[in-house]
Design goal:
Distance between the termini: 27 Å
Structural class: alpha/beta
Bound molecules: adenosine-5'-triphosphate, magnesium ion
Strand order of the largest sheet: 6-7-8-3-9-10-12-11
Shape: globular
Number of helices: 14
Largest sheet: 8 strands, mixed
Number of strands: 12
Order of helices and strands: EEEHEEHEHHHHHHHEHEHEEHHEEH
Radius of gyration: 28 Å
Helix content: 40-55%
């Protein structure tokens, strides 16, 4: 995985909500990377912060949300800091999202066809698209370097701000001398920060300048190329137009004249089509994508309203809309929860197929480990606003380490009896007062004293597998996973080897 390109990187994300009852700590220091072409499943109970995490990536959190920390890096930009305009370009274009309830993401009074072509027709300037295509790689390389530099500086600034705030908070119970020493320390820290900024800038600036120079050259080239293309098609168009006008003059009968007029109209349209994505072209593309997502008779369906579609078909439309912008990343938030089991399986299969064909990177959110098994390359298990364990799908299913992951695995319904074997005891915590230490300790029979006091760090299980549980501390007593889980693993491994 390490050699694969990271397409998205979420670092130390903290999201709170202001409510009348207090501050809800919905996402508490979440970090993960998404690699090119993979599906990362985020799994966890209701309220664990899955949707809030994905909404933060899409920039669609509600007004009472406070992003209290962290960054989300996509192509060299911190999505939490980009301008409204830039975010608009990214959201729904480079990153597409599919929600749980397809009805709420469709406009009930607009025909399906119009809803699918809308995005295409807003960004329809072919010259602009051509230009950004040419410069894209160099631009990202340059921006990535700047983003790395800014993140280093911001992280240092935050740690110094915290230090200063801490010193100031302690100042009231200090003697005069201590206060003076304290002030001196703060000054030194601040001076140290200035040096740090200088050094960090020096460290990155040469590289950044070099990349900027490359970018400048590419931009010039791109401008020239676009201008040449425009001049060429305009010249050819003028020539054809002139010829057709001559032909029109020479035409002797009414029929001939009509025929030439039609030719002129076609030429106008063809010319426009070389500079802009036309309505006709957008429709053609929409019909292709409708076919791609498995909608029969797309021509007829194009002119229908959402209510004329079944739940599964609506979800296909929502997927089609997300695909029109050719996104790089697709975020699916419980896209099949509202559907019955057979339709659910079809939609999952569709997402898997599209993902492979278009080489998309996918974040797939679900509370259903059965779905995870069908979709995931890697899995992040979330509990109470934190990722408690992450690893490859095999590592999470065959070598789970966190008691919460064990609990989730024990609660998968049995394939034959469809019965949930063991419900997770207790209820999810109140996120206004999240528990100290390991938040799952209150519900876990494996909890130790330290679990109630201190947040466990991520312990490494393998290069790709980490779990935040004190059970992995070398000093912890040896604990086996629940029988029910180890039995299942044994059986499924046996089945695998018999196949
Ligand atoms: N706008 C909001 N105002 C206040 N609290 C919110 C808001 N949105 C979400 N929350 C809270 O944030 C926490 C995380 O919610 P989130 O929607 O991410 O859960 P989830 O993991 O997606 O759950 P589900 O499986 O039910 O969709 C919950 O405690 C929820 O109540
Ligand atoms: Mg949700």
């Amino acid at each position: 995985m390490a050699d694969r390109e990271k397409v998205l990187s979420v670092n130390n994300l903290v999201v709170n909500f202001k409510t009348d009852n207090g501050i809800v700590q919905a996402v508490r220091d979440v970090s993960f990377d998404l690699y090119q072409g993979e599906t990362l499943c985020i799994v966890g109970e209701s309220g664990s912060g899955k949707s809030v995490t994905s909404k933060a990536i899409m920039g669609i959190l509600s007004n009472n949300a406070i992003i209290a920390g962290g960054n989300i890096i996509y192509r060299g930009e911190n999505l939490l800091e980009v301008s409204e305009e830039e975010f608009y370009k990214i959201r729904g274009h480079k990153i597409g999202m599919i929600f749980q309830d397809p009805l709420s993401s469709l406009n009930p009074i607009v025909k399906i066809g119009k809803q699918i072509t809308e995005a295409t027709l807003i960004n329809n300037d072919k010259l602009k698209l051509m230009y950004s295509d040419i410069i894209s790689d160099d631009l990202i390389r340059y921006k990535n370097t700047l983003a790395k530099m800014n993140i280093e500086i911001n992280t240092e600034k935050k740690s110094i701000d915290a230090f200063v705030a801490d010193c100031k908070a302690k100042a009231f119970k200090m003697t005069k001398e201590e206060k003076a020493a304290n002030e001196k320390l703060i000054k030194e820290k601040k001076a140290g920060y200035k040096d740090f900024v200088k050094q960090t800038k020096a460290k990155y600036m040469d590289k950044a300048k070099e990349l900027k120079a490359v970018l400048d050259v590419t931009e010039k080239k791109a401008k020239k190329q676009v201008a040449e293309y425009k001049a060429e098609v305009t010249k050819a168009h003028k020539k054809t137009e002139a010829e057709l006008k001559r032909k029109l003059k020479a035409a002797s009968t009414k029929e001939e004249r009509e025929a030439v007029k039609a030719e002129i109209a076609a030429e106008e349209e063809a010319f426009e089509g070389k500079l802009k994505i036309t309505k006709a072209e957008a429709k053609k593309r929409a019909l292709e994508i409708m076919r791609e997502v498995g909608i029969a008779e797309p021509e007829r369906r194009y002119n229908q309203y959402p209510f004329e579609f079944s739940g599964g078909m609506r979800q296909r439309i929502v997927i089609a809309i997300a695909l029109t912008a050719s996104p790089e990343i697709l975020i699916c938030d419980e896209p099949t929860t509202a559907l019955d089991v057979t339709i659910q399986a079809q939609i999952l299969e569709l997402i898997n197929r599209i993902k492979a064909e278009r080489n998309l990177s996918c974040i797939f959110i679900t509370h259903d480990l059965g779905v995870v098994a069908n979709m995931a390359d890697r899995v992040a298990v979330m509990y109470a606003g934190k990722i408690v364990e992450y690893g490859t799908a095999d590592e999470i299913f065959y070598d789970p380490r966190h008691p919460y992951t064990w609990a989730l695995l024990s609660s998968i319904p049995d394939v034959d009896s469809k019965e949930r074997l063991e419900a997770i005891p207790g209820t999810p915590p109140n996120m206004i007062y999240p528990p100290k230490g390991d938040a799952f300790a209150l519900r876990s029979k494996y909890a130790m004293n330290i679990d109630f006091r201190e947040q466990p760090p991520y312990f490494k299980v393998s290069d790709t597998h980490y779990a935040a549980t004190w059970l992995l501390d070398p000093k912890a007593p040896k604990v086996e996973m629940p029988k029910i889980v180890s039995e299942r693993i044994r059986i499924s491994l046996e089945e695998d080897s018999n196949e």
